[in-house]
Amino acid sequence: MESAEAILVADVGKSRCRIELRHGDKVLGSADQQGFPGLGMDNGARLAFELLVDTAAMLPGGLPTGSLRGIGAAVAGVEASAANSHELAVLLSARFKVPAAVLSDATAAQLGALNGASGTVLIVGTGAVAFRFDDRGILHRADGWGPLLGDRGSGRWIGQRGLQAALQAHDGGPATSLLDAAAALVGSPEQLPAWLAESDNPARTMARFTPVVLREAQVGDAVARGIVDEACTLLVNTVSLASGETKRVALLGGVVKSEFFGGLLHNALASAGIEVVAALGDGMDGAALAANRRGLLQERYIHRDGTI
What we know:
By secondary structure, the chain is α/β, with parallel strands linked by helices. Helix 3 packs across helix 12 and helix 9 crosses helix 10. The longest helix is centred in the C-terminal third of the chain and has 22 residues.
């Protein structure tokens, strides 16, 4: 296996942990498994470290001996604890004998999307957040406050609104094809609350209904289309709050990969005078950039182990 000067790149989220062994732009091997609660926990650094070591051991052929050059890890919860983030970088560096960089998943996404340049990125997955680094390397953020307090227009938000609309139709409210679609999940609308209560991650479970809402909106359901249009309006507001006078944004996340929703969001942003620019990469690319390059514009938000 070609491995000279390889780097280990990770994206450790709350639902999934992904690891890639890279040499330049080539992925030599990859592995993934379930994620973890986040670095903000008291033992968050140790949990993340053990998960990363365990996942790295799953790489086909293992790690190259003596030729690993660095580690870049994008980890959920970095912003919650600088101490845990630095501790994780030190643990990784000591274990793998190379310099390690730890950064938030959102910072990594912005780095990857714009290749280290200043600018705004909107990430729309289960949650929703806009990140902008200005020309001085200072972070400006809007939303990303989680399913209880924010993430407006996100996959969770769209799915939740769709399920709510289904139950309102069941109660005699506006008719929508979402009612039959929601009932099909569990057998009857009355079972939806218990179904969600039993989920280990209700936000993620509600987000799984988002493709249904988008599908029904695309084929002409008025209620579903109203939900989707409102989501676009909310996301435009999030971008506006984060971007300030910078009227350009790159889009990332599973929800914007929908051709239908992505087109609607592009149009809504254009109507607000905001240009959508192509994302050059993703969070894994951002983690790789942090491992490969020092002195980045976003450097103050990257936790390194202290080695050169």
